[in-house]
Specification:
Blueprint: E1 2-3, H1 15-21, E2 26-32, E3 42-47, H2 50-60, E4 65-70, E5 87-98, E6 104-121, E7 126-132, H3 141-160, H4 167-174, H5 178-188, H6 193-201, H7 205-257, H8 260-276, H9 281-296, H10 302-316, H11 329-332
Parallel strand pairs: 2-4
Antiparallel strand pairs: 1-3, 2-7, 3-6, 4-5, 5-6, 6-7
Helix pairs in contact: 3-4, 3-5, 3-7, 4-5, 5-7, 8-9, 9-10
Length: about 325
């Protein structure tokens, strides 16, 4: 099965706390390959494996609650209890859609972190006894300052990232509890599955916020550097486009004035003379560079005459001609 984060996430209106109080101590368990669902987050899940479909069917007609846990190795097709992490998330089904293939599409909302204490059943689907993990964090001045730092950095990430909707900034600002803020930010960042699981298992919300600071700083640095590179590339592209348009316009003007054919003929004649001059490779490359430069200059430019004189001098040198030396001293006298 697979799961992806949903862009529009809602912390809820307090009903999640009621659901948390009503959680039974045993529920079916659905294994996810990689994606970690955090409490109060809304996420779609595609359920395709037979064991997982049976677990969903077992609760679909009643309380609609089950536990999600992540596999240690996403490539395992039929995981056993040893292949699953012991810290997961109790969720409630908000919407359910059964596909013609038998697979099920779900929209779920996280309720609470849970610690699996005992596996009650493994077939035909997993059932586990668990304990909800309560979070208590006093909102001191230091904690508020930490929350403000996380919010400011996260807003910068959202501003720079084209993949993150602006609504996430508002959601982070309205998160009053430290743990909720940490989970909102962690769920939005592009973390590796192992990192997501580590944040889920980190039950101290203050520590979760502290660990987010260096991750957010790094993300901001990467996004700012990416933005600078893209801006420089755009400027270079704009410059190249302007030069191309100007050259095309200049060519049309020359053609209208009858200068284009004479100019091209002159350049081709010089190119032919360079090829026939028998220059060594280094001199030939220098001559061709200067010829390309000359071809882009208007004849009225101050450097045109200098460049043309330089090329004529290079071509006139006897590169491939030689005479036999006469070393007879008497004759020289």
């Amino acid at each position: 099965m697979s799961a992806q984060p949903q862009d529009a996430r809602q912390p809820g209106d307090g009903s999640e706390h009621k659901l948390e109080e009503q959680l039974p101590n045993e529920l079916p368990v659905v294994a996810l390959r990689q994606y970690v669902i955090y409490p109060f987050m809304v996420a779609p899940i595609d359920v395709g494996r037979e064991r997982s479909i049976r677990a969903v069917d077992a609760v679909a007609g009643s309380h609609r609650q089950f536990v999600t846990v992540v596999q240690k190795d996403p490539s395992v097709e039929n995981p056993t209890v040893e292949d699953l992490y012991r810290i997961g998330t109790a969720v409630v089904i908000l919407r359910m859609n059964r596909l013609p293939t038998g697979a099920v599409q779900l929209l779920v909302r996280g309720i609470s972190r849970v610690a699996i204490e005992e596996w009650i059943q493994t077939d035909p689907y997993f059932i586990a006894r668990f304990t909800p993990i309560a979070e208590v964090a006093e909102k001191t001045v230091e904690v508020q300052a930490l929350m403000n730092s996380v919010i400011n950095l996260f807003q910068r990430v959202v501003q720079l990232s084209p993949q993150l909707p602006d609504e996430l900034s508002i959601l982070a600002q309205t998160a009053e509890a430290p743990g909720l803020l940490a989970d909102v930010v962690a769920s939005a960042l592009n973390l590796q599955p192992q990192q997501r699981q580590e944040f889920l298992e980190l039950t101290d919300p203050i520590e979760r916020l502290r660990r987010l600071i260096p991750i957010l700083n790094h993300e901001v640095e990467v996004l700012e550097l990416t933005a600078r590179i893209q801006e420089e590339a755009r400027k270079e592209m704009d410059k190249a486009q302007r030069e191309f348009i100007l050259r095309q316009q200049l060519r049309e003007i020359r053609k209208m004035l009858g200068e284009e054919e004479d100019r091209e003929a002159e350049i081709e004649e010089l190119r032919k003379k360079i090829e026939e001059a028998g220059m060594p490779e280094e001199a030939r490359e220098a001559a061709e560079r200067e010829l390309d430069r000359l071809a882009k200059m208007p004849p009225a430019a101050a450097e045109y005459t200098v460049s043309r004189t330089y090329l004529d001098w290079l071509i006139s040198l006897p590169w491939s001609k030689s005479t036999e030396d006469n070393l007879d001293i008497n004759r020289a006298r």
